[in-house]
Design goal:
mainly alpha, flat
Length: 50
């Protein structure tokens, strides 16, 4: 899977999961940070490496 497609899938999965589990209080959001962005990522985020 290409990186762009993976990013799209990650971003799209948030609203799908939120709509399915919103009654339980579950909420997720996705933020894609690439190495080229040169941003520090807070430790409370889950890092996924491809």
């Amino acid at each position: 899977m290409e990186d762009e497609q993976l990013e799209d899938n990650i971003v799209i999965s948030g609203p799908i999961l939120n709509s399915k589990f919103s009654k339980t209080g579950f909420s997720i959001s996705a933020t894609v940070v690439e190495e080229e962005d040169r941003r520090d990522v807070s430790r409370h985020y889950q890092l996924l490496k491809t």
